[in-house]
Amino acid sequence: MKVKKSLFWLGMLFILVLAACGGNDSSTEPANNEAQAVEAVESSGDVKTLRLSIGVNEGHPQEIAAQKFKELVEERSEDFKVEVYHSGQIADDRTATEMLQLGSLEITIPSTSPVVNFVPEYGVFDLPFTIPNAEVADKVLDGPFGDKMLGLLESQNIVGLAWWENGFRQLTNNERPVATLEDVKGLSVRTMENEIHIDAWAALGANPTPIAFTELFAALQQGTIDGQENPYPNIEMSRFYEVQNYMSNTNHVYTPFVFLMSKPVWEEMTEEQQTLIREAAVEAGQYNREVNRQGDQESLDKLKEELEFTEISPEEIQRFRDAVAPVIEKHADAIGREIVEEYLAEIENQS
Questions:
Q1: What global pTM score does this model have?
Q2: CB 247 within 8 A of CB 179
Q3: Which residue, 16, 45, 127, 278, shows the most beta carbons closer than 10 Å to its own?
């Protein structure tokens, strides 16, 4: 009996030892899974989300090019995810630029006019009747002068990476066709809250009226103002033809879009990542110009079906240019006379 009991306890002990060994083996499984998870995270790296804020509507040439930028970046690197926010969903251009300075937004692509609040020299792009055509604009912006202007942004905690196209601004109104300088006299024209634009329209004989873009359609509809000025795609996509009768090709201002990135965000990137983002911004900018120029013509063709279109002669455009010459002189010191002279000389050289 004692022998049987001894054998029984030996058997139980053997079973317990086997169970203990099995327990040790199973306990290593979670540790292996955890190690594999850590390894997977390390191999994939941290994906950085780049939020890109723009003020134009979905389908606008700039928004289409912003989607192209997203595509280029995400195709070429697993380090970034790009989110495009159109129609001012995050903020207006000026506020978005301020957010870049704080590092609370990664990218915005405003027109140069709001940038004047941060870099006064950007007022050169608001000077009226200076850039004669898109070809000259490309040469000026893609050359040394354009590079110099991008470089001025770094002092404001912003990195300028590329020039995109907004296009030439054109005039529409409800009162009469505009073919001559005299036809502008007395028209109340909505402008941006920009002193150069206001002074330029006053010099042409109009009554400039700053109104927020979001309130512009209602102001035209109610007859608060006679007209407005914007590039053709903006006029078409905002359906201003529903509340306007006449349109003229004034081509009075070419204000480009400028691709801006937060300097704090930029400095967190590796050199390789910076190169990738810069190249994608430039490439998408070239695409933007192509889409914008095609869209510009398509919008013009559609607008001609809705509005009475007047072609202003080159001789008459020269009269407009002569009328606003004092405006350029007035603002030269505030912008920086040296920059203004360099800008005008560069246009002359490239024309």
A1: 0.83
A2: no
A3: 127
The structural domains of the chain, with segments of one domain joined by +, span 48-166+254-307
Helices (H), 166-309: 181-184, 195-203, 216-221, 232-237, 263-267, 271-306
How many C-beta atoms lie closer than 10 Å to residue 108's C-beta? Answer: 30
% of residues, the chain, pLDDT over 70 = 87
Q: What confidence tier does 45 reach under pLDDT thresholds 50, 70, 90?
A: low
Instruction: Give the span between the Cα atoms of 266 and 275, in whole angstroms.
Output: 11
The two tokens of residue 82 are: 């790009």
CA angle 268, 94, 296 (to 5 degrees): 100
**Residue recorded with tokens 């073919």:** 179
The CATH class for the domain spanning 48-166+254-307 reads alpha beta
- DSSP code string of 295-349: HHHHHHHHHHHHSEEEPPPHHHHHHHHHHHHHHHHHHHHHH-HHHHHHHHHHHHH
Per-residue CA distances from 322 to 126, 129, 326 (Å)? 16, 9, 8
Alpha-carbon distance 214 to 193, whole Å? 13
Between CA 37 and CA 42 the distance in angstroms is: 9
Mean pLDDT of 182-187: 98
Torsional sign, CA 271, 272, 274, 279:
positive
Convert the pLDDT of each residue in 235-274 to its tens digit.
999 999 999 999 999 999 998 999 999 999 999 999 999 9
CA 351 to CA 10: how far, in whole Å?
Answer: 103
Rounded Cα gap, residues 63 and 66, in angstroms: 5
